[in-house]
Amino acid sequence: MLIVVVGWGSCYVLITWGMRDASVLWFASLRALVTGLLLLAVLLIAGREANATVLPRRAGTWGLICVLALTNVALTFGAMFASTSGLTSGAAAVLSNSAPLLIVLPAWWLYAERPRAVEIAGVALGFGGLVLVAAPTGLGGGAGLAVLAAAGITAGALLARRLTDVDLLALGVWQFLIGGTVLSVVAVVTEGPPTTITWSARFITALFVLSAGATALPYVLWFGELRRASLTSVTAWTLLVPVVGVAFGVAVLGERVTLMEGLGDAIVIAALLLVIQSSRAAHRPRARKA
């Protein structure tokens, strides 16, 4: 999971670099499409090219994959990329990775993963921290888009539980290709044709690293964990993503963290630590009495 954390934490620096040469939605759609093609290549090279594996047969499965593509890719990537224009990379990383705070109650309702009182307290505390992070930029614009991206990640995690019978790589291929296609259509309508993209060495490098190291590889690890562990415990790992995102923003982009943002970051991280610790305690086997 540390690979997931580092990969996702580096996203905002790579997005900031890439958007110097491409518009928001075109860059987001290219990230999704390149990721889908990379996963397709791995799927075929691995010898898992049977039709039953690459192409799910049930219509209901395709419906869920399309919903996953719209939420976890199109909505999440579009909102995530657009949010960077109104926030520093560190603040965007904090807000868009607030899925652990959003998933507790839906996981209880849909999958009977009942939260403990301390987890509910952690959720309340975490949202207080998010308000502090969002306050300097207002609750709209970049902050609202970043939270929308977190909602998309949350929906994707919840849907992943209903697609455990689909090959993991095939699920990624169709999820990213369909989501990337939707983003491309929206980009054409709102931004025009991709003629303004500057295919510089910087952009190509940022796109490839973002697609391979910060999307494709973390996807396989992330969805693999979602299939075997509780949603609350898995998503709580993203508490480290904002820390990495802030560190990258400061070290690479020279961003400064305000006192208010720093305090909000600290509260969010403390809240997420509280949630993950409670989850681990709930699933720790009890010692038998002699």
Automatic annotation (TrEMBL):
Its main location: membrane. Keywords: Membrane, Transmembrane, Transmembrane helix. The chain crosses the membrane at residues 24-47, 59-81, 87-110, 117-135, 141-161, 168-189, 201-222, 234-253, 259-276. SUPFAM superfamilies: Multidrug resistance efflux transporter EmrE. This is DMT family transporter. The keyword Lipoprotein does not apply. Residues 1-133, 142-276 form the EamA domain. InterPro entries: AA-Vitamin_Transporters (IPR050638), EamA_dom (IPR000620), EmrE-like (IPR037185).
